[in-house]
Amino acid sequence: VQLQASGGGLVQAGGSLRLTCAASGRTFDAYHIGWFRQAPGKEREFVAGVSQSGTATYYADSVKGRFTTSRDNTNNTVYLQMFSLRTEDTAVYYCAGRPTYRSGIYDPRQYDYWGQGTQVTVSS
Fold first, then answer.
1. What is the rounded CA–CA span in Å between residue 100 and residue 5?
2. Digit-coded pLDDT (tens) for 5-63
């Protein structure tokens, strides 16, 4: 499956953005989808995840209550809605696909397919 993330940009602290991950290629709904981010000089970290069916979602503690992820399998799309953005949310955001037979939702090494990333910059 090929993934492409979009929707990043520059926003003031307290603002909102919605990221979109568009998928093409192999069966999209055979994969759990995760959102990761990487800030300069830091390791890539898990942000949010959604199960293949869309019925289960997972969030890092740092974004819980502010970010929401969902998916539309009909249109091969996953969304990450971000509210109350903070300067520490500034990073390149990636969507990634993990086969359903593989566990480890928080571990980027468990994901086989990655989008190219979209920059989110939150100014104070």
1. 21
2. 999 999 999 999 999 999 987 688 889 999 999 999 999 999 999 999 999 999 999 99
As given in the structure block, the two tokens for residue 91 are 């990073």
How is residue 71 written in tokens? 């998916």
Give the C-alpha separation, 29 to 76, whole Å. Answer: 8
Total number of residues shown for the chain: 124
Q: How far apart are CA 112 and CA 101, in angstroms?
A: 12
Distance, CA of 99 to CA of 72 (rounded, Å): 17
DSSP label at 54? S
pLDDT tens per residue, range 10-19: 999 999 999 9
- Alpha carbons 31 and 23: distance in angstroms, whole number: 11
Amino acid at 3: L
Residue 114's DSSP bridge partners are: 96
Structure tokens that stand for 4 in this block: 């492409």
Residue 56, class by beta-carbon neighbours within 10 Å (0-12 exposed, 13-18 middle, 19+ buried)? exposed
